[in-house]
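cron nightly-structures :: item 1 of 1
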Amino acid sequence: MERKGSAAAAAGNPSHPAVGDGQRPPPPQCVPGGGLGGVPGRGQVGAATEAAELIRRAHEFKSQGAQCYKDKKFREAIGKYHRALLELKGLPPSPGERERDPARPASPAGAPKTCRLSEEQSKTVEAIEVDCYNSLAACLLQAELVNYERVKEYCLKVLKKEGENFKALYRSGVAFYHLGDYDKALYYLKEARSRQPTDTNVVRYIQLTEMKLSRCSQRARESL
């Protein structure tokens, strides 16, 4: 754990607010699969309505979390972002989600068919997840005692979905740095720099990381 002095730098440049601060348009409605003659069955319509409502609530909780973050109510913001993610867990897996997350439980035999999310809706769900995990990492970095293991976990979740996400790359580097894994820290920080070469926070952490690696290398040579 590190004190807030370290976390202040890790929080990032003010020009890069936590993802999720901005308001996205309302989520699209769910499009159920067709029933007999192309007409959705009653169960499918109910599933479609439920899925659309879950996405709407998730979007609302995320927006509330963004407002709490702006008001510097970080503990409340964390609760809102977690609630948004919880709402999304009730949705069927998006196309390809089963392959990416084989541990996700399958629907029990005999369970009613759930609404099939449209491609647009799947993108909306993924955007909410990315915003929430990025913003959770940003909130944790404001704590007096920063849980860098959790920051790393959230950032890697973002990168699993958006491998070139600048904030997640930068914060992953910061987290690995404070966890003492300087090789991984340098990798993620350099990836972040390749996207925003002039970001002073990234440049400073790269310098700090290279200094740590140099000292480690020097101590290794002296021990021989």
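cron nightly-structures :: done
The chain is about 65% helix and 0% strand.
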